């Protein structure tokens, strides 16, 4: 069947949370040592991990982690615990890093994100962004004039379901008016985003690499599914 709609994940697919030195200003480990580049990368990975259990949780924080993308309050509990257990020295430092995570304007688009959205719009192929996330990501698109290229924003905390739950995919497809077997889902998690395949949708996996290291994975996914010559 011809692909009539494309669903995109947000984090690690269309956009990526990337830091700079300002994120770690005045942040040192308790022994006075400055945080190094590998430790910075690990903190960022833990802040954006899609499904992994990345630290040990007690019963309360485990519940918050498992349901973090359904409720902003639970997300805060879970992520503050992740940051503490990742060695972030103070709650003030953790709050500062967490605030960056929640700011949609801090997220960096992949180099080919604009191109794929424009190419699909030019072919009248509707697009939905389907994300497990506890905050509104629409400003990331509006700030770049891309909101007009997205037919539906299907966010877990708004619809009350998280990928791979079929309900979140059905919500996006219903808004676009497209059947599951006529859709392509593109995302960086085989477990979460790949859940669309259970509905009969096609699925393309991309790697959540730094944006500078992944220039055209989205274009390649469209090409493989005959949406780009």
UniProtKB/TrEMBL annotation:
Any one GO molecular-function label of the UniProt entry: hydrolase activity
InterPro entries linked to this entry: HAD-like_sf, HAD-SF_hydro_IA, HAD_sf
PANTHER family documented for this protein: HALOACID DEHALOGENASE-LIKE HYDROLASE (HAD) SUPERFAMILY PROTEIN, PTHR46649
Pfam families listed in its UniProt record: Hydrolase
Protein name: HAD-IA family hydrolase
Domain of life: Bacteria
Keyword Hydrolase applies: yes
Keywords: Hydrolase
């Amino acid at each position: 069947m011809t692909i009539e709609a494309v669903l995109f994940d947000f984090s690690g697919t269309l956009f990526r949370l990337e830091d700079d030195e300002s994120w770690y200003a005045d942040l040192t480990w308790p022994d006075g040592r400055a945080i190094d580049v590998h430790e910075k990368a690990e903190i960022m990975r833990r802040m954006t991990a899609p499904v992994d259990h990345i630290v040990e949780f007690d019963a309360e924080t485990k519940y918050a982690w498992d349901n973090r993308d359904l409720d902003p309050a639970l997300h805060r509990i879970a992520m503050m615990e992740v940051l503490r257990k990742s060695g972030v020295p103070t709650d003030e430092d953790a709050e500062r890093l967490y605030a960056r995570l929640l700011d949609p304007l801090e997220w960096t688009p992949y180099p080919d994100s604009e191109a794929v959205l424009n190419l699909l719009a030019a072919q009248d192929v509707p697009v939905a962004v389907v994300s497990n996330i506890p905050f509104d990501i629409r400003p990331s698109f509006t700030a770049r004039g891309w909101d007009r290229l997205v037919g539906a924003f299907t966010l877990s905390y708004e619809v009350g379901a998280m990928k791979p739950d079929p309900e979140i995919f059905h919500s996006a497809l219903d808004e676009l008016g497209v059947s599951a077997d006529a859709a392509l889902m593109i995302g960086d998690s085989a477990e979460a985003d790949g859940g669309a395949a259970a509905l009969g949708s096609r699925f393309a996996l991309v790697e959540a690499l730094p944006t500078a290291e992944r220039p055209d994975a989205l274009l390649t996914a469209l090409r493989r599914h005959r949406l780009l010559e």
